[in-house]
């Protein structure tokens, strides 16, 4: 059944894309019949090959994963697409009906992994926040307030004596709070967060009482869960 989805990707309706605050919209039916991904994204071919000895990958996972794609400015969500996320360039790669590696040229708003073989199954990645190309993994969702991790590439190399250089690629991440689609600055004193929630005295008092810092992931997790639980820890 999954193989049929490589040829025609149907748009379903009535199923929520994500968790909590429904960050990326819902499925809507197509105007008539199936929609081909190539007709929507106006894709182009990709020819990207690593040079020399390389350990690691610029992709979230090297293997193709089934995913669900939401394009910015479009109501439809495209389901059961084989994808890879290029962390270095911020591009979404996918396989077309001829099993060719392609990349989207439109602005992708979010991607959800729906592949049980992937460790990221059911994970949502928001894209291009603050108009900056890249992927942000949702770690905790409290509706308007979310904890996200900005994924980035760290490259380094080793070269033993009389040996060829080896390039190493690691994927790392920085935690941020996202409030109503705006990234808040990760400062110790949480100035941006306190300003955004100036009317929520319980949350601001919770931050103050527990001496929480907005540049520490564990503290950010506590803040979002406090908000998610209705101002209760």
In summary, what is this structure?
The protein has 233 residues and is an alpha+beta fold. The chain contains 4 helices and 12 strands, in the order H-E-E-E-E-E-E-E-E-E-E-E-E-H-H-H.
Bulk shape: globular
Strand content: 25-35%
Q: Tell me the Rg in angstroms.
A: 20 Å
Mean pLDDT: 80
- So how many helices? 4
Taken together, the total number of domains comes to 2
Unreliable spans are 1-16, 18-34
Helix content: 10-25%
- Written as H for each helix and E for each strand, in order along the chain, the element string is HEEEEEEEEEEEEHHH
Topology:
Blueprint: H1 37-41, E1 44-45, E2 53-55, E3 65-71, E4 77-86, E5 91-95, E6 101-103, E7 108-113, E8 124-127, E9 135-142, E10 145-158, E11 166-179, E12 182-184, H2 191-196, H3 201-209, H4 217-228
Parallel strand pairs: 2-11
Antiparallel strand pairs: 1-6, 3-4, 3-7, 4-5, 5-6, 7-8, 8-9, 9-10, 10-11, 11-12
